[in-house]
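pasting DUF397 domain-containing protein for the record, 53 residues
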Amino acid sequence: MAEWRKSSRSANAGNCVEVAIGVGVRDSKAPTAHVEVGAEAWVAFLAEVARAR
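structre below
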């Protein structure tokens, strides 16, 4: 079973993106579906987010 985590910035809001390591990304409003994201793509995504700050 994957351990899904919400962003610390989402607080208790219902409109959240959740992430599970080794699984992917999902919308908290539709938890039965998710998009698989490989480790390399995830690292690239996080680097781009950090760069854009």
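The longest strand covers residues 17-20.
The beta strands are 5-6, 17-20, 24-27, 35-36.
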